[in-house]
Write a structure and sequence with these properties.
Layout lengths: L6 H7 L1 H12 E2 L2 E2 L1 H7 L8 E6 L1 H18 L2 E6 H4 L11 E6 L5 H12 L4 E5 L5 H5 L2 E2 L14 H20 L5 H12 L1 H23 L4 E6 L2 H17 L2 E6 L17 E4 L7 H20 L3 E6 L3 H4 L4 E5 L7 H19 L21
Parallel strand pairs: 3-4, 3-5, 5-6, 6-7, 8-9, 8-10, 10-11, 11-12
Antiparallel strand pairs: 1-2
Helix pairs in contact: 2-8, 2-10, 4-8, 4-11, 8-9, 8-14, 10-14, 11-14
Length: 374
């Protein structure tokens, strides 16, 4: 039985069970529960537009959902910083349905975005980890997580549960809009239900490998995290985890943007973390993978230090990078749920290397609320 020196480590390990509980809220066997379909009925709008408003890690799950909802449902999706959406002003001419994402359901910027969306007459959906939260009560529809209480400030299990619920939403919308037939829907549900067990089987090997990598890379001054498509969201999340947990600077970029400026930063003290997984059954994923391989070749010739997250058994990526972390193959839009967990481990162990109280990083709190005036 693993030993948990910190709440963050415990919560990383709790993710398979948190995912199972969350999926059980919405699935009956291999079908969406009737009450799930009933609660979501009428949430969408005829124009097929969706706006996602969130902050921090929740915004990164929204970025992943943007790709998933567009790919699986044909919806037009925008993702806004909640703090920007509620203060834009102006006269909006579009009428999207609005999703707000928040672990606590009380984040002030996101709550303000929800209230602004309702003021504008938009249909709203809140995805939170607190069924009794303000957002859950004020939104037209609530899709709560069942991640359980998350004590560490860096979000782990709430993030992966957000990804799972957003994927379920995409399946519902895809079926409603007739973008997928019943057999395709069933296949997607079966793949989603297999994720918790797959993650559970990989946790110990990730923990063992990544604790060593943290020792190896502890002297780095900064990291650049790179991903394409839906994996860009995970690059952003990995960089945020490293910053908030270990106080080491990191930034997430689309892989194709590295040579448009950021490559000037790459050096012995600025390694790269690359998302290099692939869904071989999806043409677009294979194209992204091939472009990532070319980038790895170029960076190796440049002498860059690189850590890659790649499919188990991918020898091509392994021979091009300094270190390779394997994840079990999965479909394109489910890979993010697994590939973010090694990045959570990396942030955790880097924090330990730097003597940080990983559960309570300085200047941060679990829910960002409006300060009270003295």
């Amino acid at each position: 039985m693993p030993q948990f020196e910190h709440e963050m480590l415990r919560e990383i390990y709790e993710q398979p069970e948190a995912l199972r509980r969350t999926l059980a809220c919405y699935l009956a066997g291999q079908e969406l529960k009737e009450d799930t379909a009933a609660s979501l009925a009428g949430w969408g709008n005829p124009e097929g537009e969706v706006l996602i408003a969130a902050s921090g890690s929740s915004r990164h799950s929204g970025l992943a959902a943007e790709i998933t909802l567009e790919d699986l449902c044909g919806l037009a999706v925008d993702v806004e910083y909640a703090s920007e959406y509620s203060t834009r002003g102006g006269n909006e001419r579009r009428h999207p349905s609005v999703i707000v994402l928040s672990q606590s359901g009380e984040t002030s910027d996101t709550l303000a975005a929800l209230r602004e969306a309702r003021r504008r007459g938009h249909r709203t959906l809140a995805i939170t980890n607190a069924t009794g939260s303000t957002m859950a009560h004020e939104a037209d529809v609530s899709m709560p997580l069942a991640a359980g209480v998350e004590k560490a400030v860096p979000a782990t299990k709430s993030f992966t549960c957000q990804l799972a619920v957003l994927y379920l939403l995409a399946l519902y919308e895809g079926a409603r809009l007739k973008q997928m037939d019943p057999s395709t829907l069933l296949d997607h549900i079966e793949q989603l239900q297999a994720v918790p067990a797959s993650i559970e089987a990989q946790l110990d090997s990730w923990r063992s490998q990544i604790s060593g990598l943290a020792s190896k890379y502890k002297s780095a001054s900064s990291f650049l995290y790179l991903g394409r498509g839906v994996h860009y969201a995970i690059a952003r999340e990995g960089a945020l985890k490293l910053k908030e947990a270990s106080y080491i600077h990191a930034e997430g970029y689309p892989s194709g943007e590295l040579k448009h400026g950021p490559n000037a930063l790459v050096s012995d003290s600025v390694p790269l973390v690359l998302l290099a997984t692939v869904d071989t059954a999806l043409e677009g994923s294979v194209l992204r993978y091939e472009k990532t391989l070319q980038l790895l070749h170029d960076l190796k010739a440049q002498g860059a230090k690189m850590i890659a997250i790649a499919n188990a058994g991918d020898e091509e990526v392994k021979k091009l990078v300094s270190d390779c972390i394997a994840v079990a193959p999965a479909s394109e839009h489910l890979l993010p749920i697994a590939e973010v967990i090694p990045l959570q481990f990396f942030a955790y162990f880097m924090a330990l290397e730097h003597g940080v109280d990983v559960d309570k990083p300085r200047n941060l709190s679990k829910a960002v609320v409006e300060p009270r005036l003295a």
